[in-house]
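Entry for the shared binder. Reason: the reviewer on the internal report wants the predicted structure included alongside the sequence.
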Amino acid sequence: MNWRDFFLYLLTMAGVTYLLRTIPFILLRKQLKSEFWNSFLSGGFSSLTRLRFVV
């Protein structure tokens, strides 16, 4: 793998990660009243990763 491909893949992964975290905030501009959604959307990736490995 050359450096050009590596940085292209890295940029793609960073872009997808950023979009997955920002799209819910863009679509839900009003204040959320549900504590579940507030805690879920404000949680970090580490908490989501832990949930994945517990199952």
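Summary line for the report: The two ends are 34 Å apart (CA to CA).
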